[in-house]
Specification:
Elements: H1 21-24, H2 33-36, E1 41-47, H3 52-64, E2 70-76, H4 78-90, E3 97-100, H5 103-111, H6 119-124, H7 126-129, E4 141-142, E5 145-146, E6 149-151, E7 155-162, H8 163-169, H9 177-189, E8 193-195, H10 203-217, H11 220-226, H12 236-250, H13 267-273, E9 277-283, H14 286-293, E10 303-306, E11 321-324, E12 327-331, H15 337-349, H16 354-362, H17 373-378, H18 382-394, E13 398-400, H19 402-405, H20 408-422, H21 428-437
Parallel strand pairs: 1-2, 1-3, 8-9, 11-13
Antiparallel strand pairs: 3-12, 4-5, 6-12, 7-9, 7-10, 7-11
Amino acid sequence: MTIDKLSRRSLLGATAGLSALTLAACGTSGPGGAGGGGGDGATYWALSGEPNEKIYGDAVDAFNEGDQGSVEVTFFQNDAYKQKIRTAIGAGEAPTIIYGWGGGGLRTYAEESQVLDVTSWLEENADYKNRFVESVWDAATVDDKIYALPQGATQPIILFHNKKVLGDIGAEAPETWEDLLGVVEKAKSAGIAPISLAGQSRWTSMMWLEYLLDRVGGPEVFARIAAGDKEAWLDDAVVAMGEKVHELLEVQAFADGFESMAADSNTDQALLWTDQAALMLHGGWTFGSMKASGGEFVSGGNLGFSPFPTIDGGKGELKNLVGNPCNYLSLSSAAEDEALEVAKAFLKDGAMSDQVASDLIAAGSVPVITGQDDALAASEDAEYLQWVYSSIQDAPAFTQSWDQALQPTDAETLLVNTEQLFLGSITPEQFAENMSTGKGA
């Protein structure tokens, strides 16, 4: 059964544990269609959630109306997808087109020959390669070979705030750590959650660690970690980072029940747009979902955004960024030749078409292709989009999200210890020691 415009939406959107049986019922042979689709078609897994789900689904529909074959797309929730794609790739049952984040996970797939080297293909299609901003290729490269193609928009982590809430409590967007603690105190006094955080998802808490380590020790500390130096986890800046987390826990900075709040439900975003929280540290991708689901929160000018605060005595600059340069699409080495030809045609002509770029901007994102200045300026979200665009250009360092920069095993160890640190179950020193030895808390 081919997934058409009406049925291609989120097969696993509401139920993270839905088994491969659902896909088998649609005529594929297991999770990935036996390595990438049958006949002249290609399979493609991506993340659910608006607005990107509609944008990418529409791109598939537009491509399928042509004569270069068909692509069947299935959407998964974020956390469910990460586990499912690892299992499918390991079993040789990945979709033809694999959605990912580059970095350490891609390195693992490349070293295991589970994804294709597309360096030569890009050389043959230089016009396509040159459409993208140069900075996106680092996270797609393993040992000087490219194994993934850019997809979507740039996604720095941003400190969002509710302008109305800050105004009501007599506060402003924090520029320093002391400012941040001041917002926490004023918000709590007013009965407002200072910081909205979906801690159950773990990677959302990790975003705080990424900025805290940068602001304390500069980007060099994690650069050593990402390069494989486990001893770098014992750097004094890592312990200081953990102490800042405990400082936030002590003043009850995070929303009540943050430990059981999941990012996939968008509850953390809802706290911000319903005036129940003052601040939220999250990826730039949430701007689009807040715009789509938050009523007049965005259109009415109530959403604010700013850099992560500096820390007195720290080495990290206010303009340093963390996050994801963009998402990436790789080709499964288990896919059949016919499916790969369709997939390459889709990647070249459909996945990041001019229409996709236009749709991303309309949804409140900055696409990672060149020549978008005029379109960004003309957008109804120009203030935000141009701020993101200039932030990326001006950033002295843009550190990739840790769970993507690290190898999958190390990333899971990180997430386990991050959760325990935010629960107060381990000390900053134990966090550093556990990470240096690869011990799960």
